[in-house]
Design brief:
Blueprint lengths: L1 E5 L3 E7 L14 E7 L1 H11 L4 E6 L5 H8 L3 E5 L6 E7 L5 E4 L8 H16 L9 E5 L10 H13 L5 E5 L2 H7 L8 E2 L3 H8 L4 H6 L1 H13 L4 E5 L5 E5 L3 E5 L11 H14 L4 H16 L18 E5 L21
Parallel strand pairs: 1-4, 1-8, 2-6, 4-5, 8-9, 9-10, 10-11
Antiparallel strand pairs: 2-3, 6-7, 11-12, 12-13, 13-14
Helix pairs in contact: 1-9, 3-4, 4-5, 6-8, 9-10
Bound molecules: 1-O-phosphono-beta-D-fructofuranose (F1X).
The site of 1-O-phosphono-beta-D-fructofuranose has 17 residues, from strand 2, helix 1 and helix 9.
Length: 343
């Protein structure tokens, strides 16, 4: 079982345009759809469609359309009722796959609600099923107004302190201050999933473009996160593919380009692919392979639609072992890219 926390969930509205987006014009949509979203919600959705039990923890009223969407799609959730409606995030997609996204700030969460959300998460992590305690908890997405940037660090400590040796491992996918704030206060997450921009931002190491261009530079940046207490880094590098960096080794994965229809949720799917391979006991390189296969499959689907394991093609992914930080490639070749992930 995998638990996800989404502090700032959203109703994702995707509007398909019949041509290119024209700023300042009135344009007619060719299609429009709504899905329950937010990064942790998406990870839970992607796991659920692949038959891996996942529980999404999130704020929001029972009657909120985000909860309605989760009920409709059979995604298990535990919600903290709040008065304000959740946000709507808008995505505009063009026929060539260009995706434009506008994310709202979301309703504020006051300190009492923040405490209650953490308590709800710890409670969900304490539940055991036939396969035992939850293996992972995923802390994902932006933080709503009123929530301090170290919220994920505080949440991770609460989970670990209250559940002790039974605590699930912690995966983090966020950006900006919530990402850097999550690396404060001692032991870091067991897994962090930045894209090149977030990796550059969190390490101050180099520019996003330089990290995307040079995976070995990205390996060195990832090692800076390991030195700060992070267990493993799963970094998506746009055209260069994705990297997995742990204390044991580094791997680079890439695959032929896919016809992108909407990149929204591709990063969340990549994380879900990694986790479902990890809980199935696959090797680190095969977990990375499944992450890239999932991300590519998600990019080829419209809106925030997420692939099941059966929709993915891990055999199309090339994984290359790298000789540690900064070392040369040990074997194999890498080809072109998975789609660039979208926030
Ligand atoms: O504003 P945040 O929390 O950073 O990101 C929210 C979001 O863009 O992330 C998901 C895609 O990863 C979407 O479902 C959702 O709209």
């Amino acid at each position: 079982m995998i638990i996800t926390l989404t502090a700032n969930p959203s109703l994702d509205r995707t509007v398909g345009l019949p041509g290119a987006l024209v700023r300042g014009a009135v344009q007619r949509a060719s299609a429009s759809e709504e899905e329950s979203g937010g990064k942790g919600v998406n990870v839970a959705r992607a796991l659920t469609v692949s038959g891996v039990r996942a529980v999404a923890v999130l704020p929001g009223a029972d009657a909120d359309p985000v909860m309605g969407g989760l009920r409709k799609t059979g995604v298990e959730y535990v919600n903290l009722p709040i008065e304000a409606p959740l946000r709507s995030n808008i995505t505009l997609t063009e026929p060539d796959g260009t995706t434009t996204k506008v994310n709202a700030p979301g309703p504020p969460l006051n300190p009492v609600e923040q405490e209650a959300l953490i308590a709800l998460l710890v409670g969900a992590c304490a539940v055991k099923d036939g396969s035992g305690s939850p293996a992972w908890v995923v802390l994902a997405g932006s933080l709503p107004p009123g929530v301090p940037p170290d919220f994920y660090a505080v949440t991770a400590s609460a989970v670990r302190d209250r559940l002790g040796p039974e605590a699930p491992r912690i995966a983090l996918d966020s950006s900006g201050p919530p990402l850097t704030g999550a690396l404060l206060h001692g032991a870091g997450p067991d897994l962090v999933k930045p894209n090149a921009e977030e990796l550059a931002e969190a390490t101050g190491f180099s520019s996003e473009a330089a990290l995307e261009e040079d995976p070995l530079l990205a390996v060195r940046a990832a090692h800076m996160l390991l030195e700060r207490g992070v267990g493993a880094v799963l970094a998506t590098l746009g055209a260069k593919g994705a990297l997995l960096v742990t204390a044991e080794g580094s791997w680079l994965a890439s695959r032929p380009p896919v016809q992108a229809r909407s990149t929204v949720g591709a990063g969340d799917s990549a994380l879900a692919g990694y986790l479902l391979a990890e809980v199935a006991g696959l090797s680190p390189s095969d977990c990375l392979r499944q992450a890239v296969a999932h991300g590519a499959a998600a990019a080829s689907l419209p809106g925030t639609r997420l692939p099941a394991l059966a929709d993915t093609d891990p055999a199309a992914v090339t994984v290359t072992a790298l000789n540690g930080p900064g070392g040369p490639a040990a074997s194999g070749t890498s080809t072109a890219s998975p789609s660039k992930e979208e926030r």
